[in-house]
Design a protein that fits this description.
There is one protein chain. The chain is built from 17 helices and 16 strands. By secondary structure, it is of the alpha+beta class. It folds into 4 domains: 4-116, no CATH class; 126-143 and 290-405, no CATH class; 166-267, Chitinase A, domain 3; 430-536, Roll (Chitinase A, domain 3). The strands form 5 sheets. The chain has a 4-stranded antiparallel sheet with strand order 6-5-8-7, sandwiched between helices.
Length: 584
Amino acid sequence: MEGLLQETLLFIPNYNGEMIMGKINLVAIFILLLLANYYSLADETRILARDDIFQYKVNDLEAYLNVVNDPDKVFIIKAADAATSSPANRKLLEITLKTLAFEKLFIRDELKKEALNDSIQLMVRDALREYAVKLNNIEMLKECTVTSKDIELAYEQKKESFKVEERRKIAVLYKVFPNDKDLRASLPKTLEALHARPDLNKNFIEYVKQYSDLPGAVEGGVVDYFTRGTYGPIVEKYAFDTPKGELSPVFTAKYGAYIIKCLDIKPAGYKPLSEVAPEIRESLFKKKWEILTARRMNNLREQNKIYIPSPIPQQGKPALVLLKVNDYSLTSGTLFSTYPEISSLVKSPGNLKSYLTNLSEKEAVLQQMEKQFQQDPQLSAARELEWVRTNARFRLLFVKKVKEQIPFKEEEAREYYEKYKGFYHGASPKRLAYLLFQTPDKKSIIPPVYYKRLNDLLRSAMSLREKLAQNPDNFVEDAGKFAANKSDVTFNETDWLEKFPTSWELNVSLNDYTRSMVSKVLSIPNGFIIFKVNGEKEPRILSYDEVKDKVRRVIMGTKMTKLSGEIQDKLLKDYHFRLLINNP
């Protein structure tokens, strides 16, 4: 054998209950069978049963790590061999193997005491169903692969649908006509003077940011590629008559005057394959997935005997069968006792039927997969599904053990809180001084005027913010003076806060801001805001009621870890566990 990748790891309880692990070859298996026969003759209670031999190949370990979603440990089993891998890797391998042995032994011991009840069996079955559907979907995804050739063929077949007219990308500098007639008449002349500036073309985007009144002006007023018929005829005439890289003449429309710069031109023709490939890929994948899903559902219905009562009874005895898939059946009592929240679906028979239909499909997928794996149990997917069963059983049986041996005591939680409450603190309370730039009422004015005022307000806020940030110590004084002379700007201070006011609807955390920090201009529902952290307190100690769930999780987690260790130590000791990994 060449290295760890080709080893088979084996746990065997011998007649003394000892667990031995090592490489297995045909000779060793032959010897084991002889030993089994010998000791069965000597002591019938010590017969080596098939379930008493735990074999773990490298593929088993990989399957286990896939199931428990522990990619950080995958390198353990990918090592060239145990001899050359690091001591740390070897230690992790030993821990992993020990964990596998413990889970198997724990399950076996618990099942000797008591068989799995219906609820645990249903939850284990649920875990298997979900994983089976996951594996099935992975296989379906492979069948839905869209190749480059698929995309190229679809492009040629539907090429006419990708035919487009000429498209233009522009930047727009727009000024709204003022109400004053004289100023209104002079606006085009003002833009003509601006147009005559020698640096206008080169710095057009910056001029737009400073002067334009359209939405998005402060970002440069760029309008991405569009065809004729997208905007009004006046704008489009100059947009499509202006050469690439050039400026249009000053022109006017109903509400204002414009200068346009043509940033780029995409000529009429067909969209290139590179541009439409993502769209084609998504369309082809969706079509393949829908066809494959429909086919799978039809096959499941044709190949399996599925029964769901119709109409769904709103009440019945616990033994009432709600679902049958071939030989599998699910009763009302088992379902509702395991998942009490599902009982609400009884009030809506349609929802309950939908739930049972979905469950029947998952069960059919699982049964189909189990039949396949019986024929080839060495498939990696078969190994993974078996680990799902083992892990689900272990978790549920261990939780049951915890409930039996570790009852939660409220007084214990309170004592723990009193001892460690210094660790449970909230956010540092802060006081904010802030300027609110109130946006105009959009409904009361025409859009061009609204956007002009909005842009002017935003530019004003951004300009002021730069000045305030340079001298944050004078924020309160400077901000107060600025607001005193503005009807649409208010200055205020908050009380002590642990988070931003809900009405601000900010997607940032107050914890991100420290004392004396001046915020950027932030958009809130009714305007723009600039604030400074004007004071900060030590965080308060959270009350018991605020943290009791956390305290409970800590206490129970600690006890569960301790209980798990105690059970594991006892089990491995009872079986005289010994771990032997032979180097190649």
